[in-house]
């Protein structure tokens, strides 16, 4: 039992630290997931949950940092009883969320490990049940885990962990994530990721006389009635399925993938920081004069009326297209943000706080 207790201690502490670091690396992405939960609960339970939506970013950093702090404190065996009780409360909360998502098919990705590791709702619930079991084991076998004898040193280490954790979250919010796990990260070719990596294969679920049967080839017997088609190799499907840009005259997705494009992403014109265009506008002007044949374009999820007002207020003069709001949030966590494409390949991404100069842009091409 002592060995099981020690292994549980290491696994739970390590997993909490890993999970917290993944989330705090991308606090905006975690906040988006929290907003999704708040909207679901507001619809299913009470609109009071919408009160928390404006504070999703703060809760994102707080909860992510808390996971790291609790994981470190557990491994240090600092105030073990209180830490285990806190972990139990946190896991009961997370287990409820993942069970509700899985059973009612509400949130298809819990965001437990951000964009680094995608889990289905039932996988997330299973993971939480295992963690919950391990925490109960730790509570029952606490005698095998004596508290640290250097409590003062452990207290200092936990405090340092807290400062570093919150610092990482605040820095990541004001810049791009330290590690980008998204499909639009630097080095990825967007048009390539919009195609399957291998031919997709399917199985067909058919029904006849109340009986269901699976076929790898579509049956020629017309007495079987089609119910659904399930991919056999979904991992080979396109990694990007929803990228599309357009304006009133048509679709311009392929145009964006041609040549060197300096893309200014304006997710929401009403919330975009207008002051930063004193730096972005000179960059656009310099790009238009560059010998590298760089074409600046704007992609926004705002309405044409809202964007028209915005571009006049910011003196933003560049051709603009429209895109899906969720896609733009996935591409860039800042509003506005800057992305550099070379024939559809992402060669640079910058938060508006890190707006580059034209020399930096040209060096990437």
From TrEMBL:
It is found in: Membrane. The keyword Membrane applies. The chain crosses the membrane at residues 7-24, 55-76, 83-104, 124-141, 153-173. Keywords: Isomerase, Membrane, Transmembrane, Transmembrane helix. The keyword Transport does not apply. It is an enzyme of class 5 (isomerase). It comes from the Bacteria. GO terms for cellular component: membrane. It is a multi-pass membrane protein. GO terms for molecular function: triose-phosphate isomerase activity. Its EC number is 5.3.1.1. Pfam families: MauE. Residues 6-140 form the Methylamine utilisation protein MauE domain. GO terms for biological process: methylamine metabolic process. InterPro entries: Methylamine_util_MauE (IPR009908). NCBIfam families: BT_3928_fam. This is Triose-phosphate isomerase. It comes from Adhaeribacter pallidiroseus. The lineage of its organism: Bacteria, Pseudomonadati, Bacteroidota, Cytophagia, Cytophagales. The gene is tpiA.
